[in-house]
Design goal:
Structural class: alpha/beta
Shape: elongated
CATH superfamily of the largest domain: Ribonuclease Z/Hydroxyacylglutathione hydrolase-like
Order of helices and strands: HHHHHEEEHEHHEEEEEEEEHEEH
Strand content: 15-25%
Number of helices: 10
Largest sheet: 6 strands, mixed
Low-confidence stretches: none
Helix content: 25-40%
Number of domains: 2
Distance between the termini: 30 Å
Number of strands: 14
Strand order of the largest sheet: 1-2-3-4-5-6
CATH architecture of the largest domain: 4-Layer Sandwich
CATH class of the largest domain: Alpha Beta
Length: 268
């Protein structure tokens, strides 16, 4: 299923600007544009190709990669080829992605996030006659955890999340950085990747990494908890994985580590 990028050129500029603590007027003054021009860029009305160089330099973005995003030339479409597991994508109207990774032989599965619509997740599980073992939550925003308690009751399983001040619910089990969870044939490594939120983490299963809103194809999550913290987490936890590892984000299309190294403008 083809899926457009979560972030367009204007989104990338806005996230980089906000991450550096600049308002529209300050950025406009630095690059020789009007404040309204910055607003037009961030609302998809303006793509000043002649300003890509200075925009990239000012916002700590990679010029050539930023130009690729501007020209809409980045279209990752990796195929998931895993001998052990099958992945089902559930995309809600937000749109937000949840994933169900299932053992091809036993039909046992792990649910990752709720897409903010637990009914869609339950339908996918029922449709494929799957047997949930646990629910893993990448972070505590509502479009990823809403309805999790309902799913716990229906599936008779527990949910897991990285601890923070943002989310507290009785019965949800705390995760730890670099911890490995084992459920039947699933070995899941927890990668703590704060920045989008205080409790953001990714789940590595074989060569599949479920990233939530830590990183998207061609962009990053909004750095609510800290821009540099998020960049550092991605470089240390995601970009140190094998290039062939497939990244399955909470929004937008699936990508790979090497695709993001080569095309994501937030990284030099």
């Amino acid at each position: 299923m083809y899926m457009v990028l979560e972030d367009e050129f204007g989104d990338v500029i806005q996230k980089a600007r906000q991450g550096l603590g600049l308002n529209e007027k300050e950025l406009a003054e630095k690059i020789g544009l009007k404040e309204q021009d910055i607003k037009d860029i961030e609302t998809y009305k303006l793509k000043p190709e002649d300003k890509v160089d200075i925009l990239a330099k000012t916002l700590n973005l990679h010029k050539k990669k930023l130009l690729i995003i501007m020209k809409e030339e980045f279209n990752p479409q990796p195929k998931i080829e895993d001998d052990d597991f099958e992945v089902f994508v559930v995309t809600s109207e937000f749109p937000s992605n949840a994933y169900i990774i299932a053992d091809k032989k036993t039909k046992e599965c792990i649910v990752i996030d709720t897409a903010g619509d637990p009914g869609l997740v339950q339908d996918k599980v029922d449709e494929n006659k799957l047997k949930p073992l646990a629910i893993l939550l990448t972070h505590s925003h509502s479009d990823h955890i809403e309805g999790v308690k309902a799913l716990e009751r229906v599936f008779e399983v527990q949910s897991y999340i990285y601890p923070s001040r943002l989310y507290s619910s009785e019965g949800t089990i705390d995760l730890k950085d670099n911890q490995t969870l084992e459920f039947s044939k699933f070995n899941i490594k927890i990668l703590f990747t704060p920045g989008h939120t205080q409790d953001s983490c990714c789940f590595l299963i074989n060569d599949l990494c479920f990233t939530g809103d830590t990183i998207f194809a061609g962009s990053i999550g909004r750095p609510n908890w800290g821009h540099e913290i998020l960049i550092d987490a991605i470089e240390k936890k995601i970009f140190t994985l094998d290039n062939e590892v497939i990244l399955l984000p909470g929004h937008g299309p699936i990508t790979t580590v090497v695709e993001e190294k080569n095309n994501n403008p937030f990284f030099q």
